[in-house]
Amino acid sequence: MVKLASSLPKEYDDNGIEPNGRHLLAAYPTQDYLPVVALVRTKEITQNDAFEKIPKIEIVAIELAVDADDQEAARALLQRLHDGRVRHVKQPLDLPDADAEPEPVAPLELEASTGQYTLTVVDQPAGKFGVELRAPSGAVALTRSALPADDYEAPFPGTYQMGQLGGPLGELAGLLVQEFEQGFTTDSEDVVDAELVDETTPTTDAEEA
């Protein structure tokens, strides 16, 4: 048994996960695997009731591979280390073959999302409001704040399903779903006054593995 310390490096130079939150968000709809490279050290050693020594490790530096060449290199290294450890060739983590062509992203159909995504409207001071888009899983997908209420027909605070929305607020919800599912940042004038809030929470309180 090996335990993992419940925090990532706090220093920006040592933590390459937090600055790359947008890549993690883009990979969520397709559940793609993203390779990371990390350095660990043994922080302490404990002993259980069976007198077994259990090392507890902490990550001292970690980076996310976002470039295609870096991802392929990390994948090849993972496979080589895996095969050397288990003494037989087997794809780790059921990763697809390296030469397999990725399936094209299907066009977004908002009708298919009706009743699945929800949009929560939150009232804010000075004639502003904020919205929180939640994915079908219930996870927070995207958040916008400081939106001018007059531009969106002063929506009432509350939680709405996609099928309940229309007008400017419905258009905004559609853009947020599109941004989340297709993994790009929209430049639409409809959200020019919106403030992007990255909801990717740094993994500082992860459960011990």
Shape: elongated
Radius of gyration: 22 Å
Sheet bearing the most strands, described?
5 strands, antiparallel
Structural class label: alpha+beta
Ranges where pLDDT stays below 50 over 5 or more residues in a row are: 105-115, 184-196
Q: End-to-end distance, in Å?
A: 9 Å
Q: Could you tell me the strand content as a percent range?
A: 25-35%
pLDDT averaged over residues: 76
Largest sheet, spatial ordering of strands: 8-5-6-7-9
Number of strands: 9
Helix count?
4
What's the SSE pattern?
Answer: EEHEEHHEEEEHE
Helix content: 10-25%
List the topology elements:
Elements lengths: L2 E2 L10 E2 L4 H7 L8 E12 L5 E12 L3 H19 L23 H4 L4 E7 L3 E7 L5 E9 L9 E4 L5 H16 L12 E2 L13
Parallel strand pairs: 1-4, 2-4
Antiparallel strand pairs: 3-4, 5-6, 5-8, 6-7, 7-9
Give a verbal description of the structure.
Strand 6 and strand 7 form a beta hairpin. About 20% of the residues lie in helices and about 25% in strands. The protein has helices at about 20-25, 70-85, 110-115, 165-180, and strands at about 5, 15, 35-45, 55-65, 120-125, 130-135, 140-150, 160, 195. With about 210 residues, the chain is α+β, with helices and mostly antiparallel strands. It is elongated, with a radius of gyration of 22 Å. Residues about 105-115 and about 185-195 have low confidence and may be disordered. The longest helix is centred in the middle third of the chain and has 19 residues, at about 70-85. A five-stranded antiparallel β-sheet has the order 8-5-6-7-9, covered by helices on one side.
